[in-house]
Amino acid sequence: MILLSIQEMTKRFGGLVALNALNINVKEKSIHSIIGPNGAGKTTFFNCLTGFYRPEEGEVMFNGQSIVGLSPDRIVHKGISRTYQNIRLFPNLTALENVMVGYHVHLKSGFFGPILGLKKTRMEEEKATQIALDLLKYVNMEGREDTLAKNFPYGEQRRLEMARALASQPKLLLLDEPTAGMNPKETQDMMDFIQHMRGELGITIILIEHQMRVVMNISDIVTVFDYGKMIAEGLPEEIKNNKTVIEAYLGTGEAADSH
Amino acid sequence: MTKAQSLWNQGVKIGAIGGVSVLIISLVGMVESFGKRDIIAGILPMGVAIALIISILAAYMAAKKTSIPEKSIQFANAVVSGFVISGFLAVFVMIGRSFNIREMFVGASPVLYNILTGGVAGAGGIFLLLLTGVLCGAFAGILHMLKDLPRKLMVNALLTIFILGLLQELILPILKAWDVGMINYLAGLFYTLNGLTPIGAILSVVIFCILYLLWNANQGAIKFKYASLPKEARKKSQVAALIVLAVILIVLPQFLGLFLSEVITIVGLYVLLGLGLNIVVGYAGLLDLGYVAFFAIGSYVVALLTSPQIFAFGLNFWQALPIAVICGILAGVMLGIPVLKMRGDYLAIATLGFGEIIRILVLSDFLRPWLGGAQGIGSIPNPNLFGFQMVKPQHIYYLLLAGIILVIFISLRLKKSKIGRAWMAMREDEDVAQAMGINLVATKLLAFATGAGFSALSGAIFASKIGSVYPHSFNVFISINVVCIVIIGGIGSLPGIVVGAAVLMGLPELLREFAEYRMFVYGVALVIVMLLRPEGLLPEARHKMEFHDETEAGAKTVA
Amino acid sequence: MFQKWKDRVTITDIVMWMIGGTLLLLCLWGSVSTIRAGLYTKSHWIDFLIFGLAQGSIYALIATGYTMVYGVLKMINFAHGEVFMSGPFTGYFVATAMWRSDFLDNHPIMAIITIFAVAMFVSTMIAFLVEKIAYRPLRGAPRLIPLITAIGASFFLQYLFKGLYGSGINAYPDIEILNGFWMIFGIRVLKIQVIVIIAAIVLMLVLYNFIMLTRVGKAIRAVSEDKEAAALMGINVDAMISTTFIIGGMAAGAAGVLYALMFKQVHFFMGFLPGLKAFTAAVLGGIGNIPGAMLGGIFLGLIESVAPALFLDGLGIIAPYQLKDAIAFTMLVMVLIFRPTGILGERLASKKA
Description:
heterotrimer, B: mainly alpha, ABC transporter involved in vitamin B12 uptake, BtuC, 24 helices, disordered C terminus, C: mainly alpha, two-stranded antiparallel ribbon, two-stranded antiparallel sheet, 14 helices, 3% strand, globular
């Protein structure tokens, strides 16, 4: 079943066409990788999906609803969550608070509930705290909930960001280079973790990734961007041997010769 | 770096900075007008004390910044900078005595020259001035050479004298209010009507040193004992401390005379304002410079509803109060909707503009039939509680205390809720907060409206305390004062706000001379705090390091 | 379809458009009824326009300082109004001294040049020092911190000058040759207003050409575009930032003298309102955009001078001139809402994620 369907999505910045008439379908519970050279428009693609940018043309159907042009906070409510290429935690909030902010969309308490200390609000808070603690445990950060986010080492910040993204209980998770700056061991852990998320939590994942090893190992399907255009799509093995893709990455033979 | 270079770089340059600073406070008249008030009666006027403190501080910095780790050079640098400072002043005095610069600099009076030269005329005075500078430098140099404990002891002992002298207006009336023989005797022993007695100064230093040494010897043991207490016992001791605090706060006005009660109500009013603004600035990170608008709205609503002038609705204070708060909140929402889409610095200016618009409108002849124009609205009745007229400032104090406790309670509760987390997330990173499902406009609006409600509450109390409202009471300086309290006290920190209000608002009331230099000092304080300690003087414990971040997002970016 | 529309338009959008629409309607209605009632003659309007132009060109000069600083540092130099005040306030003492010694009456041109020189020097020094002491250590700090520092610096300077020069309102001495009228195309105009307009325009042209044509100007523009890249190209970024403050300070000092000559008075608080107005002008023109700031200033001056009569009088509002500052601020807020990139600014996609 198709969870996310993108039709003819185009985004322009002035004269530059950042995304050019993209057509992508993402199957439910799949790991769908987006690859492409630098500046191919991958992060712009994420920003269009999450509502930071508004594409000029095209339609995005998520779970049967159109989400194009919605503000980012409404898109989260529909069930899409993301992480960032350069980690963006709330640096001066604790780990627990960071994750609880992620759970924000599921909290119903209003303004007076917490002031009056209503039982309903307190129960809800307790539940939220429990869920956040569980998520921290899930990303192997048990017992560190009171540490400020900025005080974690790099790898843990990545995992904390992941926990925060999971806290909104998304159907679709967008991961922007989750293994950037990681050593082989950490990368392997992250790959296992991503597969776990898909397997245990049943989350669909779109992944932007540079490390081919990761892409080839865990992706169900791979889409290749170049200059805002989709130049290939297929199973990892197909992409590996696709001539256009190789050219996009290495340059055409003629260009290489002329150097 | 050679020794000569070091002398030039640290000694002379830092001395020059200190010299300019002392010159400025002399020229704006601080030394002279504080010269009438003594720290130690007949010996040390406050103006001179301030000049000395700045000089010693500068000389100390000169010694500390010396890049050559040789004690003699460090000492020499301190002395040189002390000499340079006094050199600046000496040149100034000589110029001032030979030419008429008073035409331009109003503060350059013969009285000032007399103070600076210790009352000695001619070359002798100049010599005395230079000598004082050198001595200050030498003193700073010695301070720098001392070990930690004696240095701290000395600095704190001197500060004790300064603070005790500064707070005479506060301490003496409280002591006198008891009117018991023993305490009267003590009051007489320590204080004259203008400053500490020399014996009082020596005694207080001695007492301070004993206490300090005792604390220093035992603090480890005490802290350890407290830490080793079981959780319940610790909680109990905290509750006990709270109860003691509450009792003190409740009985406090009984020991304060009329004047001090007046002062404390002003402080209370600003605490209330600060707590409200703290939600907007401290939690949500929105710099609101038009905060006075809501204060004005609260005041005017109460005035219109309770005063027999203009409309004569004839409501009493308690009926008008909730209406005032609701009007404040509504105004917050109405003003908030348009401005909250803006980025931080634009928001500050736009809110400043709004504050001015409100004041201009209230002042205008156009709205005069409804708002009283420049004459304002008078004869606002005092609040009446179960038939008891709250006339005296002491009564208003309790009203404010109740308001403050309520606001603190609400602040703390909200902070630990979904809303509080949303505010803080927004303060940390707006885009990401939105991507976590937080509706930015609604969340900002909530912060804005909550702050506005608190501001209107204090406005309402203000109106009934003063008994009349004028547009001139609601100028931009109120907003700036509150911003100073929140920021200098410590952003997001409730104790910081209370202390900030007490110092920034209480002191100018106690020391009338200070009132004139209030904005001058606030301005300097804002700059210095932002440069050296952007988290404020009493920061919220865990946010201590918050403002030392480099990037806006703050997270380490290794990507 | 309705669902789709509802999801995409927020309540705040609606409220904002309603506020904007209402204000626009009120202005239209006011203008129509003012003109219909014929409250003002043609010569009134011409007076308003020329006064507005003069006032506006002063705003424009100050606004260039805001805009250039915003360009290089991306911060609002709140203390710029005080830079504007410090020059003419100091110049006042020079002017009175010259007036007393009859130099002012005997050599008025020389005297005016001296006043300009002194004022521009003081303003420049203040601007330079503020940057060096208060802003430079804060490079790279979170946005609000330099803004708060700037506010602190602004109040410090205000009260410093109050302490130094006194709190009174000082009357600038009369300069004979600036008094009186000229007849231009049969219209009687105040000499001083014409002089202010011409002087301001000349100064702005000089400044604009300096920024556009000289090496330093190019370096400053490079720093505004991208500090790091500029540094890599061998540009001394700190020096260029200082230069920006110096140029802004000179413009503000000159504007201050023009202001003092036109309104004939100086006091320590005189920078606050013109400062805010000039900021408004800079926003109007698109902050960071120098010609925009100039046009914005002139536009704001015109609006301020014409609007109370045109928009408000017709609505039956008493003493509309008391509200002229409110009009300026309302305009500031409206521009910030509907066109935060200014009238001349291009609509850049907001930088996100």
